[in-house]
Write a structure and sequence with these properties.
With 228 residues, this protein is mainly alpha-helical. The chain has seven helices and three strands, in the order ααβββααααα.
Length: 228
């Protein structure tokens, strides 16, 4: 039980620190207007056009830092702060999401693998939520079976988070390269974009470490031969 609380508190602290880092960096650079004076939506449209991508819709979306690319509907959703914003942060986030659209158009392998794994990951997430409730309420599941199922569920989550890392790192690398190459940002603005995107990357690293930790915690008795 002590190990569980150490894991819980440690991963919680890691996730909170990563999230705080993103908010701090985003807040700082969202107050710095980019010299170009164009909105995040305009930059996203321009990047997609220059890359020969004309079938992706760029739309505003409610919720701060709710930006994402939907490969199923080919929709690039930007939070209103970034869609209408002209800050260094807005351009960086918008270019990052455009990077995902470019990945999709170029058949980037890791993105397609991640898309394929979404259904299984959602199922694993559901059983991680409900399995402890079922076990506690009805005591129908032996401890060893429950631990194995929880370990497998966290293993699925860990693999999904592992696949996510190259997808996110590549999108950020594309964003920084394109923004600098095509003159959307210059000088100190490049540092700002890197700060925002690098901070965001740590949230994905934290998610991977968390899922890995819980997987090993639940599977440890089986890995060490102490499951009985």
């Amino acid at each position: 039980m002590t190990l569980f609380w150490l894991l819980f508190l440690g991963t919680m602290a890691l996730s909170l620190l990563a999230a705080a880092g993103v908010k701090r960096s985003y807040r700082k650079w969202s107050e710095v207007p980019a010299a170009l004076g164009r909105t995040g939506a305009e930059v996203a449209h321009s990047i997609l056009h220059r890359e020969g991508i004309h079938d992706v819709e760029v739309v505003p979306h409610d919720g701060m830092l709710s930006d994402h690319y939907d490969p199923i509907h080919k929709r690039l959703a930007l939070s209103k702060e970034n869609y209408y914003g002209t800050s260094v942060a807005a351009l960086g986030v918008s270019a990052h999401e455009a990077g995902h659209a470019i990945q999709h158009a170029r058949s980037y392998g890791w993105l397609h693998l991640r898309m394929t794994a979404v259904g299984l990951t959602e199922f694993a997430s559901s059983w991680l939520l409900f399995l402890p409730m079922i076990g506690a309420a009805f005591a129908l599941i032996p401890w060893s079976a429950a631990a194995m199922l929880m370990g497998i569920g966290w293993g699925v989550m860990m693999l999904f988070n592992l696949i996510t890392l190259p997808v996110e790192f590549d999108a950020s690398a594309r964003a920084k390269r394109i923004l600098a190459r095509d003159g959307y940002i210059t000088g100190r603005e490049i540092d700002g974009v890197s700060s925002v995107l690098n901070a965001a990357a740590w949230t994905y690293v934290a998610a991977f470490i968390t899922s890995l930790g819980y997987m090993l915690f639940h599977l440890a008795p089986f890995l060490t031969g102490q499951e009985e």
